[in-house]
Amino acid sequence: MSEEPKAPKPNIRNRIEDWFSDLAGLIYENRIKTLVFAAAFAALFIVQLPKITVDTSTEGFLHDDDPALLQYNDFRERFGRDGMIIIALKPPNVFDREFLKKLESLHRDLRDHTPHLEDITSLINARNTRGEKDEIIVEDFLETWPETDADMERLKKRALENVMYENMLLSEDAGFTTIVIQSRSYSAPGAGAPGEGLSDEDMGDFSDDDFEEAGASETKGPPAPGGEKTFLTDAENSEIVRAVEAIVKRHDLGDTEIYIAGPPVLTDFLKRTMLEDMRKFMAIVVFTIAVFLFVMFRRISGVFAPLFVVLLSLVCAVGLMAGSGVALKLPTQILPSFILAVGVGDSVHILVIFFRRFDESGDKKAAIEHALGHSGLAILMTTLTTAGGFLSFSTADVAPLGDLGLFAAAGVFLALFYTLILLPALLSLIPIKPRARRPGKKAGAPFSDRLLNKVANVSIRRPGAVLIVSTVLIVASIAGAAQIVIWHNPMKWLPDTSAARLANEKIDFELKGTTNLEVILDTGRENGLHDPDFLNRLEESAKKFDSWRSDKVSAGKAWSITTVLKETHQALHGNDPAFYAVPQNRDLAAQEFLLFENSGSDDLEDFTDSQFSMARLTIKVPFINALDYHSFIETVEAHFTKTFPDADIAITGLVPLLVRVITSAIRSMIRSYGYAFLAITLLMVLLIGRLRIGLVSMIPNLAPIVVTLGIMGWAGIKMDLFSMLVGSIAIGLAVDDTIHFMHNFRRYFEESGDAARAVTQTLLTTGRAMLVTTCVLSIGFFAFMFSDMNNLFLFGFLTGITIFMALLSDYFIAPALMIVLNRKKETSP
Prior knowledge:
Elements: H1 12-29, H2 31-46, H3 67-79, E1 85-90, H4 97-113, E2 117-121, E3 127-132, E4 135-140, H5 149-161, E5 177-183, H6 200-203, H7 208-217, H8 234-249, E6 257-261, H9 263-297, H10 300-323, H11 335-361, H12 364-391, H13 399-429, H14 446-461, H15 463-481, H16 490-493, H17 499-511, E7 515-522, H18 532-546, E8 557-559, H19 561-571, H20 586-598, E9 614-621, H21 626-643, E10 648-652, H22 654-688, H23 691-696, H24 699-715, H25 725-752, H26 755-782, H27 790-827
Antiparallel strand pairs: 1-5, 1-6, 2-5, 3-4, 7-9, 7-10, 8-9
Helix pairs in contact: 1-12, 2-10, 2-13, 4-8, 8-9, 9-10, 9-11, 9-26, 10-11, 10-13, 11-12, 11-13, 11-26, 12-13, 12-22, 12-25, 14-26, 14-27, 15-24, 15-27, 19-20, 21-22, 22-25, 24-25, 24-27, 25-26, 25-27, 26-27
């Protein structure tokens, strides 16, 4: 008696598909409980939403424990905030009594009503050090107002002779004068509360009543005691900028040209634009998704269910971010649009199969089970690959890139969770009627079927030609990619016509800079700055970098404590310009420092500590490509290390932070590209189950990225912090369609053993969903082209075309590869 042959054991892929079918059946039977569970889970994140914060500062690009940021924080604690607001004024004549009266009125208004003010300097109160008999007097430059034309000429002569005023308070031709505003380093008590940066006040205009009230409660000095000291928040920075803009606006300055610039203004502009753009992008993406869903399914349920699922996923992802205490930053502004565009793809792949089976059978439960069993594994794998692409950012040295990686991955996992759990429950509850086929008309969309048939025929009949053309295109793209230039200048992100950018460029040109590089020298001994030898070296260093010129960087000014000392020395010698020099006697230097302190001025606090053991030297530079600063910083560091071998040297300020951001980004992107490639390749091999085909399947994933890099190189598009993201984002998204193609191709090929037939069946089924998800994804990124920001425009364009080319790659290259690789198997007996 012979035993009957045992049925072959299902492989792990079939087991997983059966598990998804069983899950669908369980959800169908417990749909109300499932909805309650999904709602309770979502509530955990929704309650965190009010805690969301915004940070668009340069410091926000670095992790809290980054050595460069720790050094910068130490500098701010000692010497205050180095990022100044600069108001540049170009009247018909600076040295005109009527203009100076207007300048005084504006100066006093700003002094009295600018919140969080630390200091304000203009020609009205600029330091004027002079000697009278044996006494040193430190007074305001306009302590005495000129009464006659002769007085005005003497005043002008005195201003032009003061080297500290040049390129600080006066342009070299005296056509411009400035008001320089320094805010406090520390936040006011209670600031930084949840929701900062997202309130209506933050987005609205700053009214007169607002700054009157703010000014009444703010006085110069350290933060009030009590509570933990934190640096000035993004919301407070915006409050300052809005107040300054409103105060300037209400003053009638006649024919005077007005320019307001500086790092705080740039930070505020980026924040305002980011929040406005996010709302714009989300509206475009939601509308696009709704249109494509309706065109594809022609059912309200086919629009409502996936939109509800993906919007809930987005809300939960943002809630998770808020609850984690992570601020919304410039790179992470793409998160909402990304989650919407990517998350809806999972629902589309399930709904395509669900509606097809439901229309055929009329059995909703069976259709839901079939849809999850058919597509569940594929969307699980696409989620893993997309998340893998983004998780490659999680170790980035640039903080918001790490945040983007973590929370984008969390967002796609949330979208997967709600697609697998909530979508079946919604489908089971929503009343849906099966559609009967019209007599004589085939199911589906005839035009799309004809189009996809033609696409399939190209790869089936001429796979060699497809692969040759693709190879030529890739080689040409590699040649173009070799010409890419890396660039990081946040000022160039702004629109060419924006007031903030025009003002910054004007001040950079006329006053030779709007930002600073700071050098801190620690002698390690009390009164180390009394040493004439040290002071002489410090003075020579200031002179060297005051006139520094190179092919990339031109310094606008350099100054240190020796400036104060020279002014004092001259004043004590009858105001004779011949004595504008550093005293060459230690006791005399100490005495002159003491006399200056006793004059009532606190200006020495800007240059040294209370023990006279540390010296600060500031170099003023314009906003340029951060990488161009790199060699300049190396030159500065080498000079001070050689000139002051007995002192500890620290190079800090906003300029080194900008350099740190872009160099860290380059390292992080190289690392993340490698991680993403390895992780996705491994997942592809596991899904397909064959090493060779798994490796080959990476070709259609990498091809669109290489072509995009080639376009950048040939078109002269510079690679910045945002365009660096394109590759890692694109590989995580491009692989999704490849997974769906390979998953279904393998299914159909195992059934028929005919590669050509399997390609055609794959494109006629999952190919339609791939087309829709690609359109939604690409338009989701093309939406960034509606931004006024140049960097976002290019990011959206490059990512959008990369995703579209990924579809073409999966429509042509992937089928051609499968035809070539499976020819031998088909012909073998």
